[in-house]
Each structure stands twice: as C-alpha cells, then as structure tokens.
C-alpha cells in the first residue's frame, strides 16, 4: 500500500517540478510579434489600485504608500523603450515628430482638463489643501509639479518626472547614442542606473532617485529585445523562480524601510518580477489580461489624475482614519468604483478622441512626407 501511494505521488511531484522549471510563456519571436502586450494594461491597473490605496489615509493601508509608483515607473520605462525599439527595428529610424505629437495628444488634454477642474474647486473654496495655489499653478502649467509641494494636485509630481524622462531618454538613447554604437544604449542605461543607485546610497533624497525605476524598465526592454539576452532574462519568468521573486518583493516592501522619494530596493524587486508578469506563468497572464484589469489599465491615466476628487467626496460621507476595517474597505471600494466611472467617461469623451486626433495627424504628416520624398526623387536628374 505504501509503495503504491508513493508511486501515485511521484508523477504529481514530477509535474510540479516540470511546472517550476517551465520556460517563458512566449518565445522570443512571439514576444517580438506582440503588437500590444495586454499584461502591461493589467500592470497599470495594479499600479493605480496601489496608488489609490496609498492615498486613502486609513490605517489599514499604512504600508502601501510607495508601492504603486515603482510599478508605474518600471512599466513606463519598459513600454516606451519597447515601442521605440520596435519602430527603429522596422524603419531603421524614429519618426520624432510623430512620437512627440502622439505623446502630447495622449497626455496633455486630460491633464489640463484635470488641472482646470482642480483650479475651479480651489476658486469655489472646495479644495482640501490648496496652499498658495496660483503660485503653485505656474509649476503645474510648466510640468514642474514635483516642486509644487504635496498639497492639492501635488500627486501629479510623478507625471512631471515621467514627462521629463520621455523628453530626454529617447533623444539620448536613439538619436545621440545609437548612430554611434547601438549596443551603447544598454551600456549607457546600466551605467546610469548604477550611478543613480550609488547617489541614492550616499544621498537618499537627491533628485535623480526618482528616475531609477524608469531606467530599470528601459534596461529590461533593451535586454528582452535581443534573442540571446531574452533567453537569459526570461529565466526569471519560470514559475518557480517567479514565485520566489514574488515572495521576495513582498518581503522587501514589508520589511525594508528606506529613505528617498522612490523606494529603490522595491524598484529592483519589481524589475526582476517583470519578465514573469509579462511572459511568465499562464495563470499570471490570465489575471493581468482579465477584462476588469485591462479596463482599469486603459483608464489608469485618468484615474491617476482624478482619484483625489472622488476620495474627497467619499471622505464627506465616511471620514478617513476610523480604524474600522469594514469601513476602510468600503471607503476604498467606493473610491475605486467612483474613480473608474468618472475616468471611463473622461476616457471616452476626452482621452480616446484626442488619441485618435493625434494618430490621424501623424498618419497624414507621414503620408505628406512620403509624397514629398517621391516628388523629390522624380525631379532628381
């Protein structure tokens, strides 16, 4: 009887071992062929849910602040670099005009909608903590939000950091470095991350710290875009390795308290998790590709901008800081649901139409340049 039981257990044990050692869900060619990685949308949703929880001002979310920003930043650095790599690989160049026009139509309309909505609440006397609003308003207009303090609309400091990065990184990595030596992009990014991390160790509050998770995301994209390094990096996506890294990331977040604007150790933990989140176990993919998370990820930008408004409304009905877990969960659920509904409307009425306008503009400009190029070829003797 004992030997039979042992023999029955052995195949199950072998299946678990094989599952733990299984390779990435996508081959390198499949990953390169993916036009839209839905897991990225799911990760945006996870990040915004953490951001909202961190802003709830309830005791049960005490260790959550600082969780969403590294996820957002690593995700953003990875995605923007991957898009640039794909365009450069397909066309051997980057259409800079189209790139920045698309970013402008994607980000600016909703941003200014939110900014003027907050300004209206300040003028009406409904803002919680406006500070010297009109002095701070100048920072918001010029995307210097990180210098505008943490009062009303101060949560948008992360957007200002990302915008500066989106301006600088593509030009440096693809316009200045790539024409000289393509592999230098990776060397530059690794050196930059190392220098910023060393600066964080010496001076935790220095400004460069906020860019570390963005650069880490860029490094991951550069590694995953090459066949050899893809095979190496995706060893982290094996189910058993991924689970160990997930537990490690939770422990890093829970046990390590570090100074600085961005939690650097947790940022490194997030970038190690990313291969598993993107091309790892199928159960992870199914979660991140689920309709609710993809929908929240699609609306995440509007949710990020507008959630303090919904939270302030919920605070009137259920005041924060009551240390009653059911009430804290209810408050969070109301804020998430209200923000999602508000953001769905904003996405459909403002964000999505403006994205479409930007796409049509860039397509028309590309067509005009093609015609101009053809005409020049025709008249060339």
From TrEMBL:
<feature type="transmembrane region" description="Helical">
    <location>
        <begin position="209"/>
        <end position="225"/>
    </location>
</feature>
<keyword id="KW-0812">Transmembrane</keyword>
<dbReference type="InterPro" id="IPR002656">
    <property type="entry name" value="Acyl_transf_3_dom"/>
</dbReference>
<feature type="transmembrane region" description="Helical">
    <location>
        <begin position="329"/>
        <end position="350"/>
    </location>
</feature>
<keyword id="KW-0808">Transferase</keyword>
<feature type="transmembrane region" description="Helical">
    <location>
        <begin position="40"/>
        <end position="56"/>
    </location>
</feature>
<protein>
    <submittedName>
        <fullName>Acyltransferase</fullName>
    </submittedName>
</protein>
<feature type="transmembrane region" description="Helical">
    <location>
        <begin position="165"/>
        <end position="181"/>
    </location>
</feature>
<feature type="transmembrane region" description="Helical">
    <location>
        <begin position="262"/>
        <end position="280"/>
    </location>
</feature>
<feature type="transmembrane region" description="Helical">
    <location>
        <begin position="68"/>
        <end position="86"/>
    </location>
</feature>
<keyword id="KW-1133">Transmembrane helix</keyword>
<keyword id="KW-0472">Membrane</keyword>
<feature type="domain" description="Acyltransferase 3">
    <location>
        <begin position="38"/>
        <end position="348"/>
    </location>
</feature>
<dbReference type="InterPro" id="IPR050879">
    <property type="entry name" value="Acyltransferase_3"/>
</dbReference>
<feature type="transmembrane region" description="Helical">
    <location>
        <begin position="186"/>
        <end position="203"/>
    </location>
</feature>
<dbReference type="Pfam" id="PF01757">
    <property type="entry name" value="Acyl_transf_3"/>
</dbReference>
<feature type="transmembrane region" description="Helical">
    <location>
        <begin position="107"/>
        <end position="127"/>
    </location>
</feature>
<feature type="transmembrane region" description="Helical">
    <location>
        <begin position="292"/>
        <end position="309"/>
    </location>
</feature>
<feature type="transmembrane region" description="Helical">
    <location>
        <begin position="237"/>
        <end position="256"/>
    </location>
</feature>
<keyword id="KW-0012">Acyltransferase</keyword>
<dbReference type="GO" id="GO:0016746">
    <property type="term" value="F:acyltransferase activity"/>
</dbReference>
């Amino acid at each position: 009887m004992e030997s039979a039981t042992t023999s029955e257990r052995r195949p199950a044990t072998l299946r678990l071992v094989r599952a733990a050692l299984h390779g990435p869900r996508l081959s390198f060619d499949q990953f390169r062929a993916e036009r839209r990685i839905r897991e990225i949308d799911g990760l945006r949703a996870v990040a915004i849910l953490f951001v909202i929880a961190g802003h709830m001002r309830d005791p049960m979310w005490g260790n959550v602040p600082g969780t969403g920003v590294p996820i957002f930043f690593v995700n953003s650095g990875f995605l923007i670099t991957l898009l640039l790599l794909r365009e450069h690989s397909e066309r051997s160049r980057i259409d800079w005009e189209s790139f920045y026009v698309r970013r402008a139509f994607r980000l600016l309309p909703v941003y200014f909608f939110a900014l003027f909505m907050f300004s209206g609440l300040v003028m009406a006397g409904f803002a919680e903590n406006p500070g010297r609003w009109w002095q701070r308003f100048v920072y918001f207009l010029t995307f210097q939000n990180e210098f505008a303090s943490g009062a009303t609309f101060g949560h948008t400091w992360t957007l200002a950091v990302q915008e500066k990065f989106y301006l600088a990184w593509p030009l440096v990595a693809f316009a200045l470095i790539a024409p000289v030596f393509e592999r230098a992009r990776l060397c530059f990014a690794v050196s930059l991350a190392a220098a910023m991390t060393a600066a964080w160790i010496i001076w935790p509050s220095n400004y460069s710290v906020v860019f570390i998770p963005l650069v880490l995301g860029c490094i991951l994209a550069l590694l995953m875009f090459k066949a050899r390094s893809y095979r190496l990096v995706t060893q982290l996506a094996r189910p058993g390795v991924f689970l160990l890294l997930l537990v490690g990331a939770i422990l890093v977040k829970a046990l390590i308290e570090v100074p600085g604007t961005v939690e650097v150790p947790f940022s490194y933990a997030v970038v190690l998790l990313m291969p598993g989140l993107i091309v790892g176990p199928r159960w992870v993919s199914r979660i991140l590709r689920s309709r609710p998370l993809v929908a929240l990820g699609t609306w995440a930008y509007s949710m990020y901008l507008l959630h303090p408004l919904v939270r302030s409304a919920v605070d009137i009905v259920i005041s924060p800081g009551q240390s009653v877990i059911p009430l804290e969960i209810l408050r969070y659920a109301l804020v998430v649901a209200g923000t999602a509904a508000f953001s769905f409307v904003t996405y459909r009425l403002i964000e999505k139409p403006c994205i479409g306008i930007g796409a049509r503009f860039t397509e028309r400009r590309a067509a005009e340049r093609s015609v101009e190029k053809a005409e020049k070829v025709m008249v060339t003797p």
